Each structure stands twice: as structure tokens, then as C-alpha cells.
Amino acid sequence: MGLCFSRENKSTAKRRPSKRIANQSAAAAAGGGGGSNRWTRIRSSRTEENLIHERALAAAILFQQQLQNGGGTASFDRSTSMRYPTGNSKRNQPLPRSSSSRARSLTDPLLQPHQLVNQDIKLDNLETKHFVLVHGGGFGAWCWYKTIALLEESGYKVTAVDLTGSGIHSFDTNSITSLSQYVKPLTDFLEKLTDGEKVIFPDLVILVGHDFGGACISYAMELFPSKVSKAIFVAAAMLTSGQSALDMFSDKVESNDLMRQAQVFLYANGNDQPPTAIDFDKSLLRDLLFNQSPTKDIALASVSMRPIPFSPVLEKLSLSETNHGSVRRFYIETVEDNAISIAVQESMVNKSPPEQVFILKGADHSPFFSKPQALHKFLVEISRLP
């Protein structure tokens, strides 16, 4: 949206430890009776729920190994299951037998599921293939069209949300009165995901926030820390607890003449009342937000951008180290940014360092337009970090 942000210093966010599967003790594995059936021995030392847990996890690990070793789906071209039904078979004839001529694969589960679990596998490698993209102020899900295509072609699941009053969301921007109302499409989506604290394979996501979307994903990280594996801020606001976007904006806007010239305040409740939204002078969009972007993308933005609700910009966030601080943060800087200058971005990073910083050279404030391939590369790289 082009609001200029900075950040007060707080203690460095705690790095969320990688989830690991706990090793089962040898004593537990051998604690059963002396029966000949191997599954009976396991059941004698484990509850049925634990056994189901291990089988499911083993299946997921094998599937992940198959993808890493061969890529794509598992091949069963040598497998033939043969049954011999006949229309005139006698009633007392034995049931037809099934046989397979497929040679055993190296990835076939020769080990028991609990032995596969004992390999100290990181769950992050199995569960972070889902990106949730959150647009900045004035933008919508439409701005991510290049990023969506690139990520999906690379095998990722991608969800791009329209925040309230943005994109194709029909709500009147001037009627938005709080950050929670503005972010509701995102929080509603996250609320429906399976909680990582309750199931074996949670629906963990990687949140990506651009511009004011950074404040929005911070709000979501506080509410749903167990559903977010990583958070990526792309030329975005990284607010600290007790800080609002306006605090940052007020601190930096005086040094950005182009920003002041481009902003147009809207007063839907009358000129004697506080502003209800912020819009941009369309003639200055290219210089402010898209100075390195293709003409066709600027044309798309000029007919798609909507005003930014003002009340969410005023709202101070309440963020805790326990929730928000437990999520791993990454920052992608945009060097040719005229809306949030590289100096402002570096100031935010220095005051509250994320786990890692990536620098997009030649990118304006909208890297999904100006540097889509480079942005995609960074997103994939971050997703693969252990």
C-alpha cells in the first residue's frame, strides 16, 4: 500500500525449534510377550492409538522418500494383481488367490513402522508445502498471480486471500472499523485448518505478507502460532507489541515526499470526522509502487487497487513472545522500493532481526511484478530451510 514503516527494538524473536518425532525406547519396543506374530508383540507394548500413529507416520515418510528419490508418484508398472473368477465356478470352490509379480522395492517397508519413526525425521519436511499469500494495503489476491503460478508449477499448494474490502471482496472499505474485521478472511481460513497440537499431520502453512500485509500476518501469528511454520515479510511492516502501522508511518512519512503527494485521504463520515480510508493518486502509482514493473502489470493494478481502510492502520497490536514470537520470521528486502525505502526496511530488520534476510536487487515495492522469478526462488528456498 506504500505506507512507510519502521520498528522499535524488541528482543530477538525466539526461533521455533524444529519438530522432531520422539524416539521410542528399546525397552518399550521389546516389552511385549513372546508370541510369534510381530504385530501382536507391538500391540502388547503400545496402545492401539500409538500403533495407528506410527503406521500413518511411516506411510508419510515412505511417500516423502519416494518423491525425493524418484520424483512424482510411485511407479507400479511391474505389479499385476491376478484373480481368477469364473462364471461356472462351483459353490464350494476355494476363493481365487491374489498374487503379485512386482519385485520388492528398496522403499518397501521391511522395517516395522516404529522403526521408521525412530529415524529422527523432521516433520517440517513433510508439512510445509502450503503457502498463504497476504496482499498489502490497496492490493488484492490478484497481485500474486505470477507467484501463484510459479509455486503451483513447483508442486506447492497456494492460497491467496482477499482481505475485507480488498480485491473482489464486496465489503465497503470505508465501513471497516478494526484490524480484526479487516483480517477476518485470513483468520477464518486459518481457523479451519487442522491444529498442529492435536493431530499427527497438521495443516501447517507458510504465511507471506506484503506491505501492510506484514501487520496482518503478525496478527494471525499471535492467534494461530501452532498453524504457522514460517512467516515471510516481503517489503512489509513488522510491528512490535503496542505499535500500530500509523506509528511507523508517522515516523517516516516526512522523509518521503512522493508518498505524501500520492496519498489521498477519504472522509466518508464527513470532513469533520477522522479519515475512513486512504487512496492513491493514480498518476503517481508507477513512480511510487511500480517503478521497475512491466507496463501491463501497472495497468492491471491501476484498475484493481482499492482504498486502504484507515482504522486498521491506527490499531496497536498486542503480540506475545509465547505466540507471535514462537514463529520463525524471514524478511525479503526490495532494493529499488520508493514506498518503503531500503533504508527503512534495513532499520526494521536491525531493530528486530528475523532469522534470515534476503535481498531482491532490482525489485520495486511490488516484487511479485518486477522480480517474480527471484521472489519465487527465495520463497522456495525459505520453505526448504530445516
Summarize the structure.
By secondary structure, this protein is an alpha/beta fold. It has helices at 26-29, 38-45, 48-70, 113-117, 124-127, 145-153, 179-192, 213-223, 245-252, 257-262, 285-289, 295-304, 310-314, 342-351, 367-370, 372-383, and strands at 81-82, 99-100, 130-134, 157-161, 205-210, 228-234, 263-266, 277-280, 308-309, 328-334, 356-360. The strands form three sheets. The protein has a six-stranded parallel β-sheet with strand order 4-3-5-6-10-11, sandwiched between helices. It has a three-stranded antiparallel β-sheet with strand order 7-8-9.
Describe this structure in words.
It contains 16 helices and 11 strands. It has 386 residues and is an alpha/beta fold. A 6-stranded parallel beta sheet has the order 4-3-5-6-10-11, with helices on both faces. The chain has a 3-stranded antiparallel beta sheet with strand order 7-8-9. β5 (205-210), α8 (213-223) and β6 form a beta-alpha-beta unit. α6 crosses α16 (372-383) and α7 packs across α8. The longest helix is centred in the first third of the chain and has 23 residues, at 48-70.
